[in-house]
Amino acid sequence: MLPATEPRAGVPKRGQIDRIGARVLEELVESIVTGAVAIGEYLPPEQALCDEFGVSRTVIRECIKRIQEKGLVEVAQGRGTRVRPFNDWNVLDPLVFDSLVRHDESLGVLDEVSVVRAALEGVMAGEVAATGSHESRVQIQGHLHDMRRLQDDNPAFLEADMQFHLSVMAASKNQIAATIARSFFVRPRQSARWDGNNPVDAVPRTLAEHERVFEAIEAGDSAAARVAMEEHILGSWRRRRLPDGAHHLSP
Questions:
Q1: Residue 28 to residue 52: CA distance in whole angstroms
Q2: Residues 172-202: pLDDT tens digits?
Q3: 47: left (phi over 0), alpha (psi -120 to 50) or beta
Q4: Cα distance between residue 230 and residue 224, in whole Å
Q5: How is residue 76 annotated by DSSP?
Q6: Which of these, 94, 102, 71, lies nearest to 179 by C-alpha position?
Q7: DSSP letter assigned to residue 4
């Protein structure tokens, strides 16, 4: 029987990991996103990763393959696995995106998410105002009625708020924009940093902003719908945003 491989010097042997492959994958992604292994640097050799995580080469190879598919690394035969530039990363990948948000100390990622989301949802709201069907407008209006009715039930109000946005996305029939905007809308809501500090009048202000979006859609005013949606999304984030770090928002 071959002797057990000793862990590399200076790296503690890790204990048993639940969902071994998924956990190793998550930790490798986090090591890259946080800069523990910086852009342009190489991951430790395969055997060193086996020793560190206490897993087989098969698990490590599969994880390397997965992070390569996410655009985080490139594998060069004989040289190792190097971290690629940020612009090559698939930031829409759920694991990458969640890690970026979780480690967003300056809130710069959430600022950028808000700017991109405002632009995309603004375009889609304009499209619904211009070409949306009667049925889609009725559906959007229904979610607005729910928001009015549920102002004293915050979780239910937020659910109705989300359904309003998702219905606008669906009604626009812009599938590419909707896919990206949906990721930038749904996933950040799982982060406490996204909630920030809501002012006491957050619910009535949010409702009024949604009313303006729908009024423009109902009137068929594409430009007004776009502006109302952009102002709502950026205004809502500005109200909630914790006052830490440099921001990427216009005054």
A1: 12
A2: 999 999 999 988 888 777 666 676 677 889 9
A3: alpha
A4: 10
A5: E
A6: 94
A7: P
